[in-house]
Every structure is written in structure tokens, then in C-alpha cells.
Amino acid sequence: MVASRDDELVLLPLGGAGEIGMNFNAYGYGPPEARQWIVVDCGVLFGREASTPGVDVIMPDISYLAERREDVLAIVATHAHEDHIGAIHYLWPVLRCPVYATPFTAKLIEGKLEEAGLKERVRLHSVPLHGKLKLGPFEIDFVSITHSIPEPNALAIRTPLGVVVHTGDWKLDPEPLIGEITDSNALQKLGDEGVLALVCDSTNALVAGESGSEATVRRALTDLIGTLKGRVAVTAFASNVARLDTVAKAAHAHGREIALVGRAMHKVVEAARATGYLADFPRTVDEEEAAELPPHRVLYLCTGSQGETRAALTRIAAGEHQNVSLGPGDSVIFSSRIIPGNELAIHALHNKLAGLGVEVLSAEDHFVHVSGHPARDELAQMYRWTRPRIAVPVHGELRHMSAHARLARSLQVPQAVTIENGHMLRLAPGRAQVVDETPAGRVHLDGLVLVSEGAGLSRARRSLSFAGMIAITLVLDGKGRVAADPAFVMEGIPEPVHAAVRDAVEGTIRRHNAKRGDEEKLRETVRRAARGAAEDAWGKKPVTRVEVVWV
Amino acid sequence: MVASRDDELVLLPLGGAGEIGMNFNAYGYGPPEARQWIVVDCGVLFGREASTPGVDVIMPDISYLAERREDVLAIVATHAHEDHIGAIHYLWPVLRCPVYATPFTAKLIEGKLEEAGLKERVRLHSVPLHGKLKLGPFEIDFVSITHSIPEPNALAIRTPLGVVVHTGDWKLDPEPLIGEITDSNALQKLGDEGVLALVCDSTNALVAGESGSEATVRRALTDLIGTLKGRVAVTAFASNVARLDTVAKAAHAHGREIALVGRAMHKVVEAARATGYLADFPRTVDEEEAAELPPHRVLYLCTGSQGETRAALTRIAAGEHQNVSLGPGDSVIFSSRIIPGNELAIHALHNKLAGLGVEVLSAEDHFVHVSGHPARDELAQMYRWTRPRIAVPVHGELRHMSAHARLARSLQVPQAVTIENGHMLRLAPGRAQVVDETPAGRVHLDGLVLVSEGAGLSRARRSLSFAGMIAITLVLDGKGRVAADPAFVMEGIPEPVHAAVRDAVEGTIRRHNAKRGDEEKLRETVRRAARGAAEDAWGKKPVTRVEVVWV
Fold first, then answer.
1. Whole-angstrom Cα distance, residue B150 to residue B106?
2. What is the pTM of this model?
3. Helices A398-410 and B343-355 sit at what angle, rounded to 10 degrees?
4. Is B343 touching A (CB cutoff 8 A)?
5. What is the pLDDT of residue B519?
6. Which of B18, B364, B492 sits opposite A206 (nearest CB)?
7. Burial A174-190 (b: 16+ CB within 10 A, else e)
8. Complex ipTM, two decimals?
9. I want to staple A14 with a disulfide (CB 3.0 to 4.6 A). Which of A60, A462, B167, B196 is the partner?
């Protein structure tokens, strides 16, 4: 295929530019009026009580692509982390295109589609490692790389206007223990061929040096577990299969039986085995069996490293787990990083464990974890291999992407561009530049309902959490007079403020009945009187709503 | 004074045992039925949107002492941080006792009392450094120590049953730059004399090594600022006067004029000067003057290191500051730690600055800060000096206090006790043990109103933030029939759920009118119908309240 005169290659990030998570990048090729699209990754973010109360999952608003659904050729997943595949089963019904991924990733996507009742409808294709794919004007090579999950891939996306290397999440690990090492030959060859743009992970662009190898964690954890006497529980991300293997082998080395605790642990180990990994994973015992063993003969591998409310370790710490209990002399190792924003939840969990007399060991004071993302020396190595004309930092907050762009410039990359979700970046022809701004935003999974962030629902609830709510119902007769005492509901407001609000509203009503006036005006006057009284008595203005009933 | 047969010495922590902040420790002496009390520190915690929405300030519930107000001899403040003095002006009216502090601390307490309209009523006594105090059975020596604020003091509390060393917040710094070095002679002499109990800061009990000296920060910041070209803003805790001095001198060394930005900066510099510190602080320029200077000739010293909503740096980053604006080529240095829980707010601020093209330098990637609390080697040194019979870790979460107690035991302290707020620990005679559990809890400053945490107000608002609110008003006639359409207020609930709730309620009302029944039953039936309909349609159960109006 050859480029026609009007062809352009564009990148449209709808997630992941400005946040770590919710990765969603669309590449478009063709003349502006007839572009064909592929989507790389389709992930979620998790809601937070402070910023998005009541929201479990956040995903990108993809209405721009929804309108061009016929031209969306495929979703290609780089690897199986939730922030890369977690939105597929929510958003697939909008795009209805085929999905491509390597076997382990495909296995986990399949599980999600099955739970969502979509398995029969989605054409999910398993691509072998080092596989190739042709999708319209795009030819894609899967390039093996290392990360904290099996089968991470960079994608070399070839188009008539040049090659884009989309790294996905990666690090350099000479001994990843599970899976292949980074295919530096392939990357170097791409560099020799000429890379138009490197679209690259920015997570650790503020971290000096290198991320370190899983093999060093294995040695350290093996030593550490050897020093522990009572029961040991280790919590890690279930998707970090190499770490699970590390922990299991470290346990085995010290004569401890391994019990998996938590649904995700079982699910991932099953998917890994089904796709050929963990062939020599030590045999596991079930929770009941483990409970019968002497303390120094058992190791629990648990979910809950982020202090998640319903995870195994949280229930163990609360003394609410059916089969696992820990106490004085026992230890818990947090073999994971703290995802920013989870500090208080994780430390609350540490405190609960400390309250049981359990000793807590974590990356804060022991070497029990390495990151899955490239620190600055690794980024520099990637730029040396690929030598792109354009650097496009993604997968980061603005502070990470800015630092990444500065690093790329310092490495003499001719152009480094920081972009925002919804900004369409033309990569070729010509100098990279933003050529369009499409609607971009977030969609919340709020309970069972998908709601646009713009609708302001969780923002409205944040207002309630700050100053509570007053609901007042007025009863009017046919002549517009107040015919009964109003009804008040006040929630989240201190008791002494209630009387002040009632008095103010009743005074307003008396004046209204003396003078009469229209309903709308009465409602607004009552609303203001109530809010004003609350503010005087309390210093805060509750959300206040006034309804009218006619009798 | 000699101990009588029934005398006991007890420690009653009401804040700071289980959290870093809200320090409040009462020491009682005498027979159980007639103890006299002194209070060491009286601080606050700050509310958080996720856990205590709408709450600005949290302080201890001191109702136990309030009932014994006549026997509370004094509040003694160790130093001027908010978590040690911030509740004095709220709680003094409950205790109405004299307050003692060294001059700088007293100056800042005085400012708070003045703002609260209490200055004339409170007997606030300034104690000289190394001063002594006699309060009933207690004789107190102020022992100079180092920390991140001027005039930190440990207190040696002498009683007929032994000496307690209460460290307050401290570290070891051979070159604190402002104020005295730790009076190791005094501590060692106390150790020689025999220390009953060491009640000691646990903040950094999980941190290996030493905290490091302010002098090394001064050298590093001076070097770093020398490498920067455009405008420079540095944010630090205003109370860290040595750091303000460090930044000002580093600026001066590179020919930059210093402008203080933010109310707290001016207040602290003023208090420091009034009490004899900062005599050679470089002259400052005001914000307007600074705006006229060439970029490389100015340095702003700003409040806002924790991403606080109304602080100077937050307004600068939002482009909303009257006199200060930053842009490409400019730099901001965060010369402070991240207080746990503030990560997201601080990183949001970094992102805003990055969005302006400003380079952000912080303790995450540069050496620009040392902690004010003792790491493990410093704790060990303190134990070597004082050699207490009992170690009582305070000023920490359970995880810190547990680690601290383990460390103390490893240093052969005969007894190390972790305590909880409200637990009364008898220190003498005999082995230390909890002898009483008093009511302990928290009081929230919610708007202008003090509310007991136990009243559940902010918890009720958290429920609102999760699933919103439904308020329904039913109108009944004299015969108990529904006489008009009900009024609905639904807030924070997705639109499609509203109709489901209305339909369910209207169906319930029709059945009621057919059969009649009592009001209470109707309310409950309607409430359940509404919540059930919301749960079916949305998967969440809003807070639901039903009121009745009679016509």
C-alpha cells in the first residue's frame, strides 16, 4: 500500500493522556474525511471516594469513535492489566469490532466477556507472541517486552506514512522469570528502519536509574521469608504472575505450603496455567488444609495489597475471614507498590494488622518489590534503540508526561509532544501537531448505570457530603395559600441548625400568606430563607430543594 | 513532696495514640479518687473529604477531664505545631486552666487566642528556654531539643513516684541552624538520675537510619537554586523557620530577592522576629515589587506545600493569584514532605504547574527536605541517653507505635507499652498497666459547630455521597387516605432511576388507598418501595426519608 496525497496518520488519545490508567489510544489513517481507525487498549480507572464518591469504575467517553463505528477496524490489547483491558466489556457494544490480543491476555478478556454475557458476540482473536496483524492500512507487529504481567507487548504499527512504536507498559528486566525478555533486536531493527513516532509509557519518568529485576526480588523475598517464624501472608497483585511464582518458590524453599486466598489469585493462576505458564508452580493447599498446618509450615498468598474493602487480606485483618486468621508472631509482607491515592487505605490495613500483633513488612522498609515501569535510564535505552522522529509520552499524569518530554528532548529527539485526551495529533505528514479537538471525557459506572461525568452526578453527591441536604415540601391550596405545615427533611445537618431552618421557613410562609404571590417566587424565597438560616447558624449552605403539592 | 501510700502516676492519652496529630496527653498524680492533672499539648487533626467530608478540624473528646476541670492544673505546650497547640482555643473554654509555653510557641498561641476573642481570659505564661515549672505534684524541666520549628521542648516531668521524659516532637540535628541543639547533657543526666518512663515520638519509627541535618538541606538547596534560570518559587511549611531562613539565604546567595507569599508566611516570620529569631534574615520585597523584577532576580517563598485549596501556590497554579504568575522557564521547589493522604492533592498541584510549563522539583526526585522526626538510629540514641524503665510510644499510628515498641524491647527497655486513646496507663507504682478506660473519641468542627464524631453527622453525609438521597412527602387527609400526588426530591441519583422510584411509590399508594392502614406503616412501606426500586434499577440504596403532611 502507498500513501495517497491526502492521507494522514493521526493519534487520538481518549484515555491515558493525563492519568495513569484508562488507557485508550486510537490511531487513524486516511484522508481526514475517510479515516480508518484501530484502537490500542481499552482500560478503566477506579473511582475514589473523595473525588468520585459512589463511582466504581471510570472509562473514557468514546462518542467520537462511536459515530465512526463502521471505520473502527479493531481493538488491539497490549497486555491484560485492568487499565488496558478493563473497559472492553463495557465499551465493546458501542464499537462492535473484533478484538486482538496474545493468548494470556485473550484468556482474561474472554473471562470478562463471558461474565458480561458477550462471549458469543465478540470476535476475540488470539495472536501468537511475535505475531503480525493486518488491519486495513495498518500492519502490526507484536514485539515482546517485559512488565509485571505475562505477555506484555509493544506494537510496531506500520503505515504507508511511517512506523509508530507503541510501547504499552514496559520495563527492562534481564531476568523476568516468567516470559521472554525484551526483544531488543526487534526494537533496534525498527530503529534502523526508521521510526516515525514512539508512543511511550511515562509512569516512572520522574524516577532516576532503573526499575530493577524480578530475579533480585526473588532472592530478597526468599531470604526474608527464611527469617520469619510464624504464619506468613504475602499480598501482591494477582496479575503479577512472576511474583506469585517468586513467592511460591520462596515459600517452598523454606518448607512452607502455599495457599491461594482471594478470587483473583485463583483466576489468574488458572489463566496462566491454561496458557502454558507456571508449569513448575509448587502444589498449593486449600485454605482449610492450611489452617491445620503448624504456623511455620504455611504461607498465604493473598489479594488485597491496596487495602481494597472486600479483598482477602482486609477480611483477614478484620478477623472476618472464614479460614485464615493471623495473630502475634505472624507476618504479612506487602510485595507491591502503593498506588497513589491508596496510602490511607493501605496504612489503615497495616494498623489493623499491627493491632492483631502481626508484623507488617512492606516496600517502605524492605526490598520486596520492583516496579513494572521504566525508570529514566530505561527510557533513555528505548530512545537509543528506536531513535524516533517524534516522542509522544502517554500513560502518565501531566507531571510525568512533561518530565518524559523533557527527557526525550535532552536525548535529541527532534520533537516531543505532550498531548491531552481528545486532542487529535497528526503524526504525518509534516511536523506533528494537534489538528482537531474531539469531545473527550469520562464515563462513570455508577452502580449499574453508565453516566457521563459531565452530568455531574458524583459532583452533586460531593456537595451533599460537604453540607448535607434540606428538602422542603410546601402544601398550597387552590388560592395559592399555604394550606398545611410544610414537611422538612434534613440530612447530614447538625441538630441545632434544624430549628433555625424551620423558623426561617415558617416566617417566610407567614409573610407569603399575608401577601400571596406566585408559586415559583414562593419556592425560591423559601429556598433562600432555609439556606440563609443554615449558613447563619452553621457557616455552610446545604443543597436545598423545595417542592410544592397542591390540594 | 513525698508519695503517699495510695498515690499513683497515670498517663491518659486522649489524642496522638493511634494517629499522627491531635496530640493530647494528660498526666495524673495522686490517689485514684483525687488525682491532679496536667495536660501536655492540645492539638488538632485536619478533616479529609473521603473519611470526614465537610469537617475542617478534628480534636479530642476531653469530656473525662471536663468533669474534673477543677483538678486540671495547666496545659503545657511542647512546641507550636498545629497538632500540638491547634485545639487550645477550642478546648480552653472547657478546661479554663493556665497555659504554659516557651516564648515563640506562646506568641503563636497568643495569636490564636486573640482571633478567638479569648486573649483577655486565658492566663498564658511564657516559660524561658531551659525553664522550670511547678504545678502541684509535678515539677517540669523544659529540655531543649531539635525539630522542624523553633523552640521544641522535651519535658522532664518529676513526680514523687519518678520522672517521666515526654519528648514531644524531636529529631537529632547537630546543625539545626535556628535555635539550640538537643540538650544531650540534660537527657543523659536524667538517665543517670533514673527515668521511669519515656513517652516518645513514633512518627518515623519505620524509617531506618537518621533524619539528616537542616545544614545539608541548606547546602543542597543553595546549589539547586543556583542551577535555575527563570522565576523560582519554593514552598515549605511556614512554621519551619530554619527552612525559610535556608531558602532566603540560598536565594540571596544567587542574587534573588525574596518575596513572602501567603498569610502564614508573614505570620510566622513576624512571630519569629518578635521572639529574637531571624535577626539576619535577608530583607524581603513585597509581591508587587517582585513582579517588576527580572525572572532570575526573584524567589517566592509560598504557602501551599500540601496542595491546600486556598493556599498561595494553589492560587498561583490556577492563574488566580493577584501578583504572582509563573510560566515556561520557571521552577517550583516543594521543600517539604507529603503528609500521608495529601498525595493526590499535591500531585494535582504538580500537574497544574506542569500544565503551565513550570518545572516541578520535589523531595521525590531531589534532596530538598529532611524530616523533623527521629528515625530509628535517633530513637536508639534517645533510649541510650535516658534508659527508661518503661517505653510508651505515642504520636503515631498503631503501625508506628508497634514498630517503636519492638525497637525499644530490642534495646532492652524492660517494658514497652502501646496504648490507645482513652486508656489510662498507670506508670507507677508497679509494672505499667492499663487501669481504666475512659470515654475517648473525637470532636469535629463541622462548619461553625462542634459535633461529636459519635453523632455520625459526617458518616451520614458519606452515605449521601455514595448513593444520594430520596425525600418523599405524602399528603394524607383526615381519613388517612392519600389526598394529593406525593412530592419527590431525588438528589445525586441517575435520571433513569427517578421514574422507577416514582412508579413504585405510586403503586404502593394505590394499594394503600384501597386497603387503608396506619400512617407509620404507610411511611415504612413507601420507604421500602422507593429504596427497593432504586436498588433494582441502579444497584444502590439511597438514603430515603418519608414525611407525611395532613390536610
1. 12
2. 0.93
3. 50
4. yes
5. 86
6. B364
7. eebbbbeebbeebbeeb
8. 0.92
9. A60
